[in-house]
Amino acid sequence: MINLDKAVKAFESKGYTVRVFENKDDAAEFLDMSIDGKVVGFGDSATLLDMGLFRILREHNVVFDPYHTSGNKEFVEVAKKTLTTDVFLTSVNAFAETGELVNIDGTGNRVAGSLFGHKKVYFVMGINKGEETLEKAMWRARNIAAPQNAKRLGINTPCAVRGDKCYDCNSDDCICNAIIVHRRKMRNTDDMEIIIIKENLGM
Predict the structure, then answer these.
(1) How far apart are CA 10 and CA 160, in angstroms?
(2) Residue 24, exposed/middle/buried by CB under 10 A (0-12, 13-18, 19+)?
(3) How many C-beta neighbours within 10 Å does residue 70 have?
(4) Does 44 score more than 90 pLDDT?
(5) Is residue 122 part of a domain?
(6) In the Cβ-directed half-sphere of 46, how many Cα atoms lie within 13 Å?
(7) What pLDDT shows up at residue 159?
(8) 132 is in which domain, residue-wise?
């Protein structure tokens, strides 16, 4: 179990706004109240799906989510739109209590949206994503999150088929084409907010 207080202090020291919620419903209510009348982009995220945020936020915002598309052409079109929205929401594959966020991406839209182009970025994650060190967070992202996400997406990679670990594959279906470590808040984004939920969410 990670030291949550230590993680919060580490993230705050690196320029992030941090909020901790007991459950996903409280976190969803906060986001629903905080994001109003905006153009919102989602990064592919099982956590956001678990929270039902697409349905909640689109009632009073314009929301683009690549997950809610059919076919690669529409996916790419919507994913591009998410990169120029006022607000961007995504999750992470892992975080370290020393203040780093780790994300793996196959297409690039999720990590691209988290790096540049928005006034506000929210990283929304369950407590299960937390690890004590950056090294352990990297291991989790590659050997737990990536295989589970590949299996969820029906991708034919060794990790998805066997479901146990990263095989460092060179498959055309590989979803591990980029591994991004956020060491600090990005300079050109007005606010980057970390939402930590004390429940197991996502992969």
Answers:
(1) 33
(2) buried
(3) 7
(4) no
(5) yes
(6) 15
(7) 94
(8) 4-197
What phi, psi does 18 have (nearest 5°)? -130, 135
d(CA 62, CA 40): 6
Q: What is the CATH number of the domain that holds 180?
A: 3.40.50.10420
| Side chain identity, residue 70 | S
Banded pLDDT at 166 (limits 50, 70, 90): very high
pTM comes to: 0.96
Which tens digit of pLDDT belongs to each residue from 152-164?
888 889 999 998 8
Question: What tokens appear for 7 in the block?
Answer: 């993680």
Q: Is residue 179 part of a domain?
A: yes
| Total domains, the chain | 1
Report residue 124 as tokens.
């929304």
pLDDT at 163: 84
Please indicate, yes or no, if residue 203 is contained in any of the structural domains. Answer: no
